[in-house]
Specification:
The complex is a heterodimer.
Chain A lengths: L1 H13 L5 E6 L1 E3 L11 E7 L5 H4 E2 L6 H5 L13 E2 L5 E2 L4 H8 L3 E8 L7 H10 L11 H7 L3 E4 L20 E4 L9 H14 L1 H17 L11 H17 L6 E6 L14 H20 L6 E7 L19 E6 L7 E3 L20 E2 H13 L3 H8 L15
Parallel strand pairs in A: 3-10, 3-11, 7-13, 7-14
Antiparallel strand pairs in A: 1-9, 1-10, 2-8, 4-6, 5-6, 7-12, 11-12
Chain B lengths: L4 H10 L11 H7 L1 H6 L18 H25 L14 H16 L42 H19 L4 H12 L8 H15 L7 H9 L2 H6 L11 H6 L6 H10 L9 H10 L3 E3 L12 E3 L9 E3 L2 E3 L4 H12 L2 H15 L6 H13 L4 H10 L2 H4 L8 H11 L8 H9 L17 H4 L2 H16 L7 H8 L6 H8 L4 H10 L1 H4 L2
Antiparallel strand pairs in B: 1-2, 3-4
Helix pairs in contact in B: 1-2, 4-8, 6-8, 6-19, 8-9, 9-14, 12-13, 15-16, 16-17, 22-25, 23-25, 24-25
The chains are: A alpha/beta, B mainly alpha.
Chain lengths: 404, 523
């Protein structure tokens, strides 16, 4: 009997964090602490699962928005009003920290943005987002890693960082990386568990029952002292960001890092001002705030880029969620960001203006945003950006003036 | 692509450890001749044997334990002599399995929390934490020098891990894995538990290699004799302590029978509960096998760590067992009794039922059980004939795949699909502990349960999912879960499974869902 108890106890204590990863370049850029005193830092946050940009930075002033986003649309009024940015855009109420950074001109939104990928597979979409190539295909390296190869390499970062087992593709490649994760034995996330329960319901009812009960047991146990509270996505995202910021704030800490957060694939019950997406956005906003406070003085020279593989349908589906779409948002935050603005060539949400009559039409290439950041922070040339970092992208010009 | 993917799934999952990934072509090969694919492994009986560099015999291992125990004792005495006031260092005594698990996992968790003050090696713990994804240094601010070096593993722990690794590698590399599944079946049928003590732990792998494997495609009676005369079994079920009350040793030491092994031989190994034996028969068999023991460290009875018959402990005289009188004195008395029990009709029935239950269904089809029982009787317990008849039957191919993979099957099948040959058993041993099937360490002599209900329990499913998520998180570049689904099930995969994997949020999650799909969980 006590075998069983120990098993439960250790599993619950040990299994905490899922859906987040962190990896960094193993070297300092050589020009750090150069004559101008700038010591730039770059953090790339990948949101896997396709973020609903229309719910995060909602075009509440667009006449078609409320109809399309229906039950989950944000509004300027109500119990949880969206936070007005540049008209017609308003920020999700779960992200007050980001709103504050925006007001202080240390955060910006790029709207109606997309990678060059135009299909709707997560795997392929993430490949394109992270590889920096124009189309899917199995490549060995990501754009951030290739950008590092173009940077002058200085000393090795803090040796306390171990080599991670899985580096996000964006940071994979020839340039050596180090990884870190704050807690052992990640627990499967709720979304994956629900998908599995759903599969079992269709194919294997006995396993559906067993797994559902197992999940409930686990939930019940999370109320006890065994599990660091709250073992949820928000706490996890904050925790990863806090740890990463601490590492990156050190003099010999990494300057360039990538994180990935899972869970954005909101097909059902996405929620509006409150609910599932609100919960995740609260985590994301919290993570950005952790970076801000954890980096301290270094925040001044930092840019955080938040990007996702594609957007979601403009119109909600039959289960109060959104399906895979195209155009979405990218977020920039950090003291080095020339912020306080929503950068968008807004296409509008009229049916005729939607991509394939269903998705927000992308009017900005995400690569131009990232190129602009890489150029602003590290001075990479147009040519390196067009040939090495984002191959065959000469037509995509770096966006100017993103970095102060 | 495949001619009959459903039959291939039966061949690989019901009889084997599932398809291997990479360029194995297992599913296609199995589809083109499902029965032939399974039976191919039965041709070479020597292929069941397991030899690997460094694996030692029971005798050698027994001597290693005795030497290790001597060392520990000497070290303790030396410490006591040097500093009589101080507490002696703790002896490496056996702990309860639960405690052991707790220690190892807590140690791992504490380490990750960056507060580790003591490295306590539990033998199921990975020796090199860098091999685990969770072992990344958590805190750059904390100097790594504060961490003490982990204690080196002792000979018992090292042996256990080597034996585990050899078994895991064999299962991962096997083409179908049918003979390895047979090994696991018989090993669980005739189980010992490593938690019994240091000898059991060091002997657990050797027991399987020496007493089980040589007879998996041989005769039941031979396996029975090899098992009941193996030092590991005699130690596990206390027969080395059992003395004939009227034997010289019994008289001298005023001690007598221990019925443990005799009872389990009839109840668990041969006749089964209700197999027609009485308490009288148990006592009688216990008397018959008095003197079956192994030589101890002094080697008075023989080479230390080897099976010996100690005539001094043997109950003299004829014994009545199951209505028959066994006159022969000495070792031959017990061997004759075992030979008869192996051929008892209840044994044929018990084995046939258990065999079909393991491979086909929790409620074994009675027709198939009857046929296998008949073959068992007719062939004098030829286990190769038994396995062949199972594969040749229609029932084994028609019955839906409703059995649940045990944790061991699940982990091995996952490793095969990912084409990962284990180089360190640590992760497997930890996961087996977590999932309630610690290797060679069942809670009792009846072995691990063999019903779907036992392995599809709520907490178990949740933990399985967590482990699948961890495997997903470790997914290497350029592995596409949809390719793996092709390797694992191809067009035998359900639409729903395919869709669930296709729609997963990331490849990592897709892999977790694939590993947890009914196609990978059921066999």
């Amino acid at each position: 009997m006590d075998c069983t108890e120990n098993r439960l106890l250790t599993s619950r204590r040990g299994l905490l964090l899922g859906g987040a990863s962190f990896a960094a370049w193993a070297y300092l850029p050589k020009f750090a602490r150069a004559a101008d005193g700038r010591d730039p830092r770059l953090i790339v946050v990948i949101l896997r699962g396709a973020l609903d940009g229309l719910s995060t930075v909602a075009p509440i002033g667009d006449p078609d928005y409320a109809g399309l986003h229906g039950s989950i649309a944000l509004a300027a009024d109500g119990a949880h009003p969206a936070i007005m940015l540049d008209s017609p855009f308003a920020l999700h109420p779960a992200m007050p920290e980001f709103a504050r950074m925006y007001r202080n001109k240390h955060a910006a939104v790029i709207h109606a943005v997309a990678t060059p990928y135009r299909d709707r597979s997560h795997f392929d979409g993430q490949d394109v987002l992270e590889s920096g190539y124009a189309g899917p295909g199995r490549v060995q390296s990501g754009w951030l890693n290739r950008a590092l190869e173009a940077l002058p390499r200085g000393e090795r970062v803090s040796s306390a960082l171990a080599v991670g087992p899985t580096t996000p593709l964006v940071l994979r490649g020839n340039a050596p990386t180090v990884g870190w994760a704050p807690v052992a034995l990640p627990q499967a996330d709720d979304d994956t568990a629900m998908r599995l329960v759903d599969l079992y319901r269709h194919r294997d009812p006995a396993l559906a029952l067993a797994l559902s009960q197992g999940l409930q047991l686990d939930k019940a146990a999370s109320g006890d002292d065994m599990k660091p509270k709250p073992g949820n996505a928000v706490a996890q995202m904050r925790q990863v960001a806090r740890g990463a910021a601490k590492l990156m704030a050190a003099d010999d800490g990494p300057r360039i890092a990538a994180l990935a957060f899972d869970g954005w694939d909101t097909h059902a019950n996405e929620g509006g001002p409150v609910g599932r997406l609100a919960f995740l956005l609260g985590g994301l906003g919290g993570a950005l705030a952790e970076f801000e406070s954890g980096l301290g003085e270094r925040w001044r020279d930092t840019v955080v880029v938040v990007a996702t593989e594609f957007g979601r349908t403009a119109r909600i589906n039959g289960t109060d969620g959104t399906d895979h779409g195209t155009g979405t948002i990218a977020l920039l935050a950090g003291g080095a960001v020339k912020g306080g603005r929503v950068i968008s060539d807004w296409p509008g949400l009229k049916l005729a203006n939607l991509y394939e009559a269903r998705d927000l039409k992308p009017t900005t290439d995400l690569r131009s945003v990232i190129k602009g950041v890489l150029q602003g922070q590290f001075g990479l040339s147009d040519r390196v950006l067009a040939e090495t970092v984002f191959p065959d992208s000469a037509g995509v010009r770096p966006m100017k003036g993103l970095v102060a | 692509m495949a001619r009959d993917s459903q039959a291939a799934l039966v061949a690989l999952n019901r009889f084997g450890f599932g398809a291997r990934g990479g360029a194995s072509g297992d599913l296609i090969n199995a589809a083109s001749d499902p029965r032939g694919f399974v039976k191919a492994e039965l041709v070479r009986a020597s292929g069941v044997l397991l030899e690997a560099p460094g694996l030692q015999s029971t005798q050698q291992l027994g001597q290693a334990v005795f030497a290790y125990q001597d060392q520990v004792r000497q070290a303790r005495e030396a410490a006591k002599a040097a500093a009589p006031a101080e507490t002696p260092p703790p002896a490496p005594t056996e702990q309860k399995p639960g405690l052991r698990r707790n220690l190892s996992l807590n140690a791992a968790a504490t380490e990750v929390a960056g507060q580790m003050t003591e490295a306590k090696p539990a033998d199921n713990k990975p020796a090199d934490n860098a091999a685990r994804p969770d072992a990344m240094q958590p805190n750059a601010a904390a100097p790594p020098a504060a961490k003490p070096a982990p204690q080196p593993l002792n000979v018992i722990q090292k042996t256990f891990r080597s034996e585990a690794l050899a078994r895991l590698q064999r299962a991962t590399l096997a083409t179908c894995g049918f003979t390895e599944r047979l090994v696991a079946f018989w090993s669980n049928h005739f189980c010992i538990s490593a938690t019994k003590g240091e000898l059991a732990r060091i002997w657990a792998g050797a027991f399987e290699r020496e007493a089980i494997r040589p007879h998996v495609l041989g005769h039941f009676a031979d396996m029975l004799k090899a098992v009941e005369q193996h030092p590991a079994m005699l130690f596990f079920l206390d027969n080395q302590q059992s003395l004939g009350p009227d034997s010289r040793a019994g008289q001298n030491r005023k001690r007598g029978l221990n019925e443990n092994l005799a009872r389990e031989i009839m109840e668990l190994h041969t006749l089964g509960v209700g197999g027609g034996y009485t308490q009288e028969d148990v006592t009688s068999l216990a008397r018959i096998i008095t003197g079956w023991t192994f030589a101890g460290r002094q080697g008075q009875l023989g080479t230390p760590g080897s099976f010996v018959f100690n005539a001094n402990a043997h109950q003299p005289g004829a014994q009545m067992l199951l209505g028959k009188s066994y006159e022969a004195a000495g070792l031959a008395q017990g061997e004759a009794a075992l030979a008869d029990i192996a051929r008892h009709p209840s044994t044929a029935n018990f084995i046939a039922t258990k065999f079909v239950r393991h491979f086909v269904a929790d409620d074994p089809p009675p027709g198939l059980v009857a046929r296998l029982r008949e073959i068992f009787v007719k062939t004098d317990g030829d286990l190769k004939a038994l396995a062949t008849a199972l594969v040749d039957s229609d029932e084994a191919w028609k019955a839906p795949l409703t059995k649940m993979r045990s944790p061991y099957d699940f982990l091995v099948a996952s490793g095969r699909l990912l084409a990962r040959v284990p180089e360190d058993p640590g992760a497997y041993l930890n996961d087996l502990n977590l999932l309630g099937q610690p290797l060679w360490s069942p809670a009792g002599p009846n072995g691990f349960p063999d019903t779907s209900a036992a392995w599809a329990a709520p907490e178990g499913m949740k933990l399985r999912l967590d482990i699948a998520a961890q495997m997903g998180a470790r997914l290497g570049p350029n592995i596409d879960p949809l390719d793996l689904l092709e390797f694992a099930a191809s067009d035998a995969a359900s639409i729903e499974t395919r869709r669930t994997i296709e729609r997963a949020e990331s490849r990592q999650k897709a892999l977790a869902l694939l590993l947890m799909s009914p196609e990978m969980q059921r066999r």
